[in-house]
Amino acid sequence: MLKVDLVLLSMKNPLISILTPFKNTEAFLTDCLQSIVSQSHQNWELLIVDDHSEDASFDMVEAFAATDNRIKLYKNKKHGIIEALRLAFNKSSGDYITRMDSDDIMMPHKLDILLSNLLDKGKQNVAIGLVEYFSKDGIGDGYKRYEAWLNALTIDGLNYSEIYKECVIPSPCWMIHKQDLISCGAFSSNRYPEDYDLAFRFYKHQMTCIPCDTVLHRWRDYESRASRTDEHYTQNYFLEIKLHYFLELDYDVKKTLVIWGAGYKGKKMARLLIERNIEFIWICNNPKKIGKHIYNNELHDINFLNTLNNMQVIVTVANPDSQRRIRSFLSNKQLKSYRDYFFFC
Predict the structure, then answer these.
(1) At CB < 8 A and 24+ separation, what contacts does 112-121 make?
(2) What is the pTM of this model?
């Protein structure tokens, strides 16, 4: 009888495993850990991994762990966030997995809301929430735009609709059933940025994004944050991961591939396609470049598209006004977004 009661309790109040790598975040760890300890859902375990900190971070977490046996502290014998996440995941016992960054803050009902949404929808879903950037120095326009863009997608659960622009699932604000994460490969990939790679694998394995209209996570910005300083989060890595998954998941070899744009990102995309021996047509709006050759490929004006009957277009133009005009032009040609054309920025 006792065993049955325990099973029923675990079903109603399941264990959530929180995976948190950290490195040199002593200034923020207390706020982070306190926000976890203060969660309304209390059946959790924190698998927190020190990735070779050189400050007092390890000692701070160790002191917290001494007062709460749900906090399980490890040292990363290897190097990097992917290895730290692998270690944390391998040590996890919960049926539900979520991530947390050591410099951020959970809203008090974050775990409850994410879990409730997953319990309501079942497997083959990923629960996500709205995010709010904060900084003692104020938030720049770029992060404000990203926050607004990401939250607008999350409110309707349409995150995958713009997956080739930026990472559409906030890395520290998702939760998924452990078996679903395993089916997506968990943290077996060595591809950076690791959060964007995981978002693509959720997309690949058709994990539905559950809509959410509540801010669940406060995302801290500061000058030395890894996303600002680590080479793995530069545009080169973003473009490579976008092309990798586009070729795997959405590229139609029966259609003519077109690159629209000859700025930095357009040139990088062209080089990546040339390296893979994939032929393409190159379109450009800049009259100074039209008719010239870059990497032995001629740049054409947009009228050249009228000669193509069956195409897929990768748009690498970043300017919002230009993007609106390009979208209108392609839509007028009866092309459909995320089937016939894809915005890569």
Answers:
(1) 112/39, 112/40, 112/41, 113/212, 113/214, 113/216, 114/173, 114/174, 114/175, 114/216, 115/14, 115/16, 115/41, 115/175, 117/210, 117/212, 118/175, 118/176, 118/177, 118/210, 119/14, 121/208, 121/210
(2) 0.92
